[in-house]
């Protein structure tokens, strides 16, 4: 390691020399050699587990991108900065349920056949800082036969955790059919119910069109807050809102 002197301070790499600035001045040192080459990474068996993990994780990233599109209209208003990483982690846990294929060749569709995998999906939060159990103080379940949630009425002031300055709450549900092999999906959104904070006990009636395909069915609930000033409504930032996966099953089971 050496120190560079001169009127100009350098940063970056020049040939085999790395320049960088520290409290002790402009330092220069010779670039280190790792000893690994593309050829050794390709041929050395010690790297096989790394490559297998990379293939599995690459598949999760691809499928995770589709997963976040299923209810994009909800996630656009209720997600945190970690949603992509948490989605990939969730799908990786599901892929590991595939006991038919070796590591590096595992398939999401095979992993999803496990009952545990469906349990992994249920409860996934778009915004982990505002989980459904905190925002909505009434337990709910989704009934696939009726395409309805168990929530029949609600008192907004009593049953909802309100962010500061929020005056309205927007409630909506959706069901999505996901063919994770073909990377296709269809989503049916319900009507939106908007309630004032002081509305008192209010009926909750959602209407959903049925899905046609018989792939993996997922049900979501969305809770979004806004503030009204005169005739202007402003939706609160994503960090205050909630999108939760509340149910899943295979369509051919109905």
Descriptive overview:
This protein has 8 helices and 14 strands. With 254 residues, the protein is α+β, with helices and mostly antiparallel strands. The strands form 4 sheets. Strands 8, 9, 10, 12, 13 and 14 form a 6-stranded antiparallel beta sheet that branches. A hairpin with a 4-residue loop joins strand 5 (142-143) and strand 6 (148-149). The protein is flat.
Chain-wise SSE layout:
Blueprint: E1 2-3, E2 12-14, E3 17-22, E4 25-30, H1 38-43, H2 48-67, H3 72-75, H4 83-95, H5 108-111, H6 115-121, H7 132-135, E5 142-143, E6 148-149, E7 153-154, H8 156-159, E8 168-179, E9 184-189, E10 193-196, E11 202-203, E12 216-229, E13 232-235, E14 242-250
Q: Which features does this protein show?
A:
254 residues; alpha+beta; six-stranded antiparallel beta sheet; four-stranded antiparallel beta sheet; 29% strand
């Amino acid at each position: 390691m050496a120190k560079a002197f001169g009127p100009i301070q350098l940063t970056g790499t020049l040939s085999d020399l790395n320049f960088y600035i520290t409290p002790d001045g402009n330092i220069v040192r010779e670039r280190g050699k790792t000893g690994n080459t593309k050829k050794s990474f390709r041929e050395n068996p010690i790297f096989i587990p790394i490559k297998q993990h990379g293939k599995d994780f690459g598949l999760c990233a691809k499928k995770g991108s589709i997963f976040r599109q299923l209810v994009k209209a909800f996630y656009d208003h209720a997600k945190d900065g970690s949603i992509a990483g948490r989605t990939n982690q969730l799908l990786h846990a599901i892929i590991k349920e595939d006991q038919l294929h070796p590591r590096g060749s595992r398939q999401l569709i095979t992993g999803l056949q496990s009952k545990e995998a469906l349990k992994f999906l249920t409860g996934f939060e778009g915004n982990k800082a505002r989980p459904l159990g905190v925002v909505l103080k009434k337990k709910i379940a989704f009934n696939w036969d009726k395409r309805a949630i168990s929530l029949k009425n609600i008192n907004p002031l009593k049953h909802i955790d309100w962010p500061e300055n929020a005056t309205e709450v927007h409630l909506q549900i959706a069901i999505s059919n996901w063919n994770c092999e073909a990377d296709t999906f269809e989503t049916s959104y319900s009507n939106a119910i908007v309630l004032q904070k002081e509305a008192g006990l209010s009926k909750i009636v959602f209407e959903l069109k049925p899905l046609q395909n018989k792939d993996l069915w997922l049900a979501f609930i969305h809770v979004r807050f806004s503030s009204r000033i005169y005739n202007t409504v402003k939706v609160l930032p994503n960090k205050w809102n909630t999108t939760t996966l509340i149910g899943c099953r295979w369509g051919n089971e109905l």
